[in-house]
Amino acid sequence: MDFIKDVTDNTYHILFLDISMPNIDGITLSKELVKLSPETIIIFISTQEDLVFEAFGMNVFSFIKKEELSRKLEQVFLNTLNYLKENDSLFLKTMEGNIFVKVNEIYYFSSINRKIYLHTQRECSRVNYMFLKILSKELPPLFMFINRSTIVNVKHVEIYSKDSVIISNDSKDKLYISRGRQKEVLEHILKYRSKDKNIWML
């Protein structure tokens, strides 16, 4: 029950869940999680194999029998990581530890006083990279440098002008494009947003 309260404020990418628990069983909890945290992947660990089928379709990715846990856990975990990587999630190093972040949730990265920050729909947090150039190698083509200290997710460019972009977050952040990158940024936006009607070109 404490976990249900906690999941409303925190993101969990992978949940290892038993079926038999006090107060609320794992099947019921998985149904609640679909409403509260639809992105969370569930892996059941239980002796009650027959009950797992009730929850499939509820973000249940896999099932491990308790007696096979030590033998199968590593492979199931690796399969889950690969699934996240292949489904538009990035594996990033932060000051608090390694995290998965959905590409669609990322607005931009910024470098301030030699510290790199991740700006998402949920928060702004520091990521553990020395330089943006190193980080950029791990990003998909949707991301672009608009100046030497900012990498933007093209999906979240709401307004473009020759020297700046406005991001589609609540604060409508205005980010400046360096003179030497203006042509490159325009070409990048036209390439990845040409069919998108939700961007203003000024």
From TrEMBL:
Occurrences of domain HTH LytTR-type (ranges): 90-191
GO molecular function ontology, one term from the record: phosphorelay response regulator activity
Phosphoprotein found in the keyword field: yes
InterPro entries linked to this entry: CheY-like_superfamily, LytR-like, LytTR_DNA-bd_dom, Sig_transdc_resp-reg_receiver
Keywords: Phosphoprotein
Entry-linked Gene3D superfamilies: 3.40.50.2300, LytTr DNA-binding domain (2.40.50.1020)
Domain of life where this protein originates: Bacteria
Domain Response regulatory: residue ranges: 1-81
Protein name according to UniProt: Stage 0 sporulation protein A homolog
